[in-house]
Design a protein that fits this description.
The chain is of the alpha/beta class. It is about 25% helix and about 25% strand.
Length: about 350
């Protein structure tokens, strides 16, 4: 049953240097449900997708492509929802919609173009659970797909290393590599539980616990012929060690750098970059929304096909309730998640 109020999380203050995300940064309140004007439609949030970039929205002096959320505003975040009222001829009540819904139950939306953060789309071929539209078959899956295929040129017979393998993007990247015929896929993660999960449920060939194992020694053992595709989500020391194990003509895909993302002060770059020269390798970063449009849609279609064929495991790690959204985001930085973090706000419609 629909609610008669609009629950919201608004930004109360920005975090101090290296402060963890918590409910202390937000104000939880309620507002009336808004009504759409001409050209607009009202969307009820079904699921929100916490992402590391959302930490960047809280930086009072953003240094990246991210635009901060002003104090007092509803916290920004992408999600999937259902249109419940519309005054736009192309968007009908009942349709499923993906966009920047914010941390709230209801939001007023309108069609947007290719803007990096606010891009929107209707889900014309929805798959249950609808959370997949912003997870496995949406932003997380598409990021893994584009990084591996467009940047990494993954091919049959490749040896692949995926850092943060038990994270949302990493857990999908490893699966796609196997679908594309990779010879061996190895992931790094932070616990034995996650290592076992990657190998026994997600389909990785091996996993390295970077907290208890020597990464250099394990890579030499697990990938003696070197790394053909290095899908990196963490940066820092693991990136530096991985570079020393590149195969000839390797491709290093820079998807993220969560290990140093919000660490203050001077930081070292990839000290072992000389291996890029010695192995004639290539290192390239990418942002998934650079591909927004036809290419993004093709990636979604491929992922949906693989999922329906049973080739992809939905690695969703779900939190229940809008009230848990700050903790869901925090878990991405503390190692508390395993797979694609989703916060369910409302049940899927019948």
């Amino acid at each position: 049953m629909a609610q008669d109020t609009n629950r919201q999380w608004r930004v109360a203050r920005y975090p101090e240097a290296e402060e963890q995300i918590s409910t202390a940064l937000f104000h939880r309140g309620e507002d009336s449900i808004p009504e759409p004007c001409d050209g607009e439609f009202l969307v009820r949030t079904i699921c929100l997708a916490p992402g590391p970039a959302q930490r960047g929205y809280l930086d009072p002096k953003p240094t990246t492509m991210l635009e901060k959320v002003e104090l007092g505003e509803v916290m920004r975040g992408r999600g999937v929802g259902q249109i419940v009222a519309s005054r736009h001829p192309d968007y009908a009540a009942g349709e499923i919609f993906v966009g920047s819904l914010g941390w709230q139950d209801y939001s007023i939306q309108k069609p947007r173009g290719s803007d990096f953060v606010f891009s929107t789309k209707k889900v014309t071929d929805p798959v249950k659970p609808l959370s997949t539209a912003v997870g496995l078959l949406g932003q997380a899956g598409v990021t893994a797909y584009l990084g591996l295929l467009n940047i990494g040129d993954v091919a049959a017979g490749d040896n692949v290393l995926v850092t943060a393998g038990a994270g949302g993007i990493g857990s999908v990247a490893g699966q796609i590599a196997k679908i594309k015929g990779a010879k061996r896929v190895v992931g790094t993660t932070s616990s034995k539980e996650k290592c076992d999960w990657l190998c026994n449920e997600v389909g990785f060939d091996a996993a390295i616990n970077y907290r208890t194992e020597n990464i250099d020694e394990r890579l030499a053992t697990l990938l003696p012929d070197g790394i053909d595709v290095f899908f990196d989500n963490v940066g820092g020391d693991i990136l530096n060690v991985g570079l020393t194990h590149l195969a000839m003509h390797a491709r290093v895909v820079i998807c993220g750098y969560i290990s140093t993302d919000y660490v203050r002060g001077a930081q070292n770059g990839p000290i072992n970059y000389r291996y890029l020269l010695a192995r004639r390798a290539r290192m390239e970063g990418f942002v998934n929304f650079d591909y927004w449009g036809d290419e993004y849609t093709r990636a979604e279609q491929a992922l949906t096909h693989w999922y329906r064929e049973g080739l992809l495991v939905n690695t969703e790690d779900q939190a229940d309730g809008l009230e848990n959204m700050p903790d869901a985001l925090s878990s991405l930085f503390t190692g508390g998640n395993m797979g694609i973090k989703i916060c369910r706000v409302a049940p899927d419609p019948a």
